[in-house]
Amino acid sequence: MIENLVEVAMLAITCPDGKIKQYKKGTTLLEMAADFQYLYKTTIVEGIVDGDGKDLQKPLTKDCCVGFIEMNSTEGQNVYVRTLLYAFLVALHHTRPEVQIEVKNTMGYALFCDIKNGIYLSKYDLADIHTYMQKMIDEHEPVVYTRISKAEAEKLITPRFYEDTAPLLDALDDETVVAIYSLKDEKKYFFGSMFPHLGYLRSFGLLNYKNGIMLQYPNRVDYDTLPNFIDQAKLALVYDETEEWGKTIGCSTVTALNKFIKTGKDREIIQIAEALHEKKIAHIADKIAKTGSHIRLILIAGPSSSGKTTFAQRLSVQMRVNGLKPMPLSLDNYFKERIHTPRKANGEYDFECLDALDLDLFHDHLSALLAGATVKLPRYNFGTGVREFRGQEANLGENGVLVVEGIHGLNEKLSSVVPAENKIKIYISALTPLSFDDYNRIQTTDMRLMRRIVRDSQFRSRDALGTLQVWPSVREGEEKYIFPFSEEADVMFNTTLIYEFAVFKKYAEPLLLAIPKDVPEHVVAERLLSMLRHVLSINDEAIPNNSIMREFIGHSIFKELL
Predict the structure, then answer these.
(1) Rounded to an integer, what distance in angstroms lies between the CA atom of residue 504 and that of residue 496?
(2) Is the pLDDT of residue 188 over 50?
(3) Average pLDDT of 196-215?
(4) Mean pLDDT for the chain?
(5) SS3 191
(6) Residue 5: which region, alpha, beta or left (left: phi > 0; alpha: psi -120 to 50)?
(7) What is the predicted pLDDT for the residue at 7?
(8) What one-character DSSP code corresponds to residue 349?
(9) 3-state DSSP call for residue 359?
(10) What 3 state SS string does 213-281 have?
(11) Spacing of C-alpha 540 from chain mean position
(12) pLDDT for 380-395, tens place per residue?
């Protein structure tokens, strides 16, 4: 008897080792990953197909170039946290189904999940949830990946906590195919890939925090150990205030923002957001003025693309309204000369560490200025790496207040010569309150990254690829020199504008689309683009010229300082 032979289609795949190999059509990235795990230091957790990040369960359907993302990368950690959250949501549903959770914000290496219906979970409840999660992990519970139409996906995405009359996927093309995951038959939509099964998860923790739960996860250096949880009460309060404000004006989700735009209320949402900024900045200036002549130094710090320059200028304007005379003092001019600049382990100059500054000279000038003396200000020449004196002098005079902006502003070592009662430390950051639904949120880091991409393109002759290439180093500096000191602040200011995500639709999207597919950074670009596809573009003509947003998109009244 002659058997019918079915010809199996073969694909030509350019592999991570640079060679072109034949794979059967339908082979999954997970199956292929087994052949190349030896090239990676840590476990492969996501695939890259022609530059786009793809779930490992995705089958190969055409000739393409394939690469992989491993666990100890930033994108790998995103997959870890996303999968861990999914496991938590499923375990919670099976142990305490009446509890309603909304995912809010991160605090260190922990994700805050707010309990919306006022139910308190005891340490015994958390132990039960932990046990259920660990059982799923030990049993390698599969996370099933499927792709369905937009219309079918919309039936599965039903927000519980916001009265969003339009579906989350409304801004997507009707032909869009959506990735849906299933864990123990609970289907959910997430912005990004998942592990193929929960056995990839290594460590996690659950802590009671305020009216919710902190879901702890490891850092990407050591996945077997949980970092100690450090409460950031001041930062948490700012998050809470921002969340409540978003609810008050009826704009807590991307869907709600889209509704403002579709109904022609884009100017209204811009005006409301800008009015809030002006009100809060004026309040900070009033607080400074009420101290009389006690406050002589204001220190402003925050991570990259927080809007520090515009904030400092707007605060200075409000201070002048109150009769004060703010005087800027740039830390950039107090760098040590190049030959004395510390170096990183790789030999590069470390301009971000505190030791890169000439603290002795800076302290001398602080003390002299606050004592009423006149000082000769230095000017650091970044081209030659030499400090110069060009005859510029400064004297605070009556009602004068020094305003110092820089990444080390909250570090007490920077201003130790000034007593606490004579200075105010201000921490600013872009803490976005906007979310997609109950468990898909917009990360603050992603919002700041889009700000920086746009600003670098507008003012620093750097394309989006260049920004993405330096971003890991920027983030490393923030983790070392800014975030650990945030709770030292006397005042915190959130520079996020509720409408700005829609602004990036116009400005960041074309910059991200220009990133070549054959570079590693394309994976991050595609993830940001997938988020932007869910929002409508806003008419930005109504954004005032003193807006923090103008620091990034242009036409700022403070442009000569940017």
Answers:
(1) 13
(2) yes
(3) 96
(4) 92
(5) coil
(6) beta
(7) 63
(8) B
(9) helix
(10) EEEECCCCCCCCCCCCCCCCHHHHHHHHHHHHHHHHCCCCEHHHHHHHHHCCCHHHHHHHHHHHHHHHH
(11) 23
(12) 998 899 999 888 899 9
